[in-house]
Amino acid sequence: MIAIIDYRAGNLTSVARALQHLGEPCEVTADPNKIGTAHRVIFPGVGAAGEAMGNLRASGLDVCIQKAFEAGKPILGICLGTQVIFDHSEEGDTACLGIVPGRVRRFPGELRENGKPLKIPHMGWNRVDFVGDHPVFRGLPQGSEFYFVHSYYPSPADERLVAGWSDYGIRFCAAVAYRNLVAVQFHAEKSGRFGLQILKNFCSWEGRDAQ
Amino acid sequence: MLSKRIIPCLDVRDGKLTKGVRFKGNIDIGDPVEAAKTYYEQGADEIVFYDITASAEGRGIMIDVVRRVAETIFIPFSVGGGIRTVEQVRAVILAGAEKVSVNSGAVENPRIINEGARAFGSQCIVLGMDVKKVDRSAKTPSGYEIVIQGGRKYTGIDALRWAKEVENLGAGEICLNSIDADGTLDGYELELTHLISTNVKIPVIASGGAGKAEHLLDVLTQGAADAALIASIVHFGTYTIGGLKEYLKGRGVKVRRQW
Fold it and tell me: Cα-Cα-Cα-Cα dihedral of B216, B218, B221, B222, to 10°?
């Protein structure tokens, strides 16, 4: 069973629907026992980092996620879930879970591309260039695009943790791989066939083989 | 670099498409779920459902349609039409839509924008604007006015001022529909689209007037739109979404070409 962590960060049913479509048993839950017995954990979410961290701490789910990580369970972060696993987010100057070393930064206010100002949030489909050969990111064609909605982006302390790069005025980290954890800034559950491929790969990944 | 989005719009009444959609082979599809699935497979970047149902009973059917669409396609989709309360926003989002589009409801009660954004995030709230060209005046300095009730009622609200206001209230996106261009198949209202798109920081979806591939090219380049809403040109089988994207790509517009 895959536990989808419910910490009141937006609507989490779309991740569950995508897994059901793939025939993978899953449950949206805030119950530490269920998360403790799950084989895999997905940590999704949309919203603001400060509020998310407040909810995680108040419910004890922060400890629960840390434990799941230390137990070696395969973990997949998505969007806000990806951001709060780092040490710190510039959004509301928030101390985060500190599972992956690094920070979350805001896109600079005056981003430009070919002389034209770029809009924030970064919303829509953008290309991700995966690096290395991580099992969760296998089978994706060169130049495949994914659906993003965000104003902040992860910036791992060590560039070797970056599993995928994307470009929006600046080059930024769109996918992370760290031990038994992978995390994506884009919405894999809303990124069509290639997003489903990532979810499917995650469901058969044992949490090893990361660089 | 972001791709420009191509978004088919499906009109629904009582859970059925109001006009059939014809794909290759001229098979008329009346089921919004089937039509959404076909556009998803054809490479639509997003799908918009516009619910013109009047009755409460019909609205319940729409929620069921939303649920079935969410189980079938795995790209963002939005639902609009007659949404006036945060409870309605909630019902649509929980049924599986990524976004909700509010239009007249926001003109009558702008608080629905910030309450909706607070509950589900700005990315969920699309502000639909129906706009008509008018004489410039003290009330409408941009020369464009917000209209409601399908263009029958003028509100006295300047379109540019309203766009900036809804951005401040927390709308995540604007779907900008020109009532003058809508249904003409003569092309989008480029001047209006450019005016709004370059004066707000949130993405603008251009709507109304698409009849040919070059209209999309014009609105995504000269009009500075982030996305183009299309209806008849794909519903009647004149173009496929893939064909439109191929055309745009050939003219230097970045579009998503693998799906």
Answer: -150
3-state secondary structure of A41: strand
What's the pTM value of the predicted model, to 2 decimals?
0.95
Long-range pairs for A49-52: beta carbons < 8 A, 24 or more residues apart: A49/A80, A49/A83, A49/A84, A49/A89, A49/A91, A49/A92, A49/A94, A49/A96, A49/A104, A49/A152, A50/A91, A50/A92, A50/A94, A51/A9, A52/A7, A52/A9, A52/A80, A52/A84
Given a contact cutoff of 8 angstroms between Cβ atoms, the answer to whether B256 and B3 are in contact is yes
Residue owning tokens 């790209």 = B75
Q: What angle do CA A56, B97, B228 make, to 5 degrees?
A: 120
Encode pLDDT of B127-181 as tens digits.
999 999 999 999 999 999 999 987 889 999 999 999 999 999 999 999 999 999 9
Residue B173 and residue A10: Cβ atoms within 8 Å? Answer: no
Is A189 an annotated catalytic residue? yes
Closest by alpha carbon to A126, among B5, B157, B38?
A: B5
Q: How high is the ipTM of this complex? A: 0.93
Which residues of A, range 17-36, sit inside 8 Å of B by Cβ? 17-18, 20-21
Q: Which residues of chain B have pLDDT under 70?
A: 20, 22-28, 54
Query: Rounded to whole angstroms, how far apart are CA atoms A80 and A83?
Result: 5
Superfamily of domain B5-250: Aldolase class I (3.20.20.70)
Q: What are phi and psi for residue A160, nearest 5 degrees?
A: -70, -10
Would you say B236 and B212 are in contact if contact means Cβ atoms under 8 Å apart? no
Q: Which stretch of DSSP H or E encloses residue B130?
A: strand B125-133
Cα of A100 vs its chain's centroid, Å = 12
Cα–Cα distance between A61 and A67 in angstroms, integer?
10
- Domains of chain B, residue spans: 5-250
Q: Which residue of A has its CA nearest to B66?
A: A14
* Helices B190-197 and B159-169, axial angle in degrees (round to 10): 40
| CA pair distance B121, A91, nearest whole angstrom | 14
Minimal CA separation from B160 to chain A, in Å:
17
Residue A128 contacts by C-beta under 8 Å, 6 or more apart in sequence? A144, A145, A146, A164, A165, A166, A174, A175, A186
CATH class, range A2-203: alpha beta
- Length of chain B in residues, anyone? 259
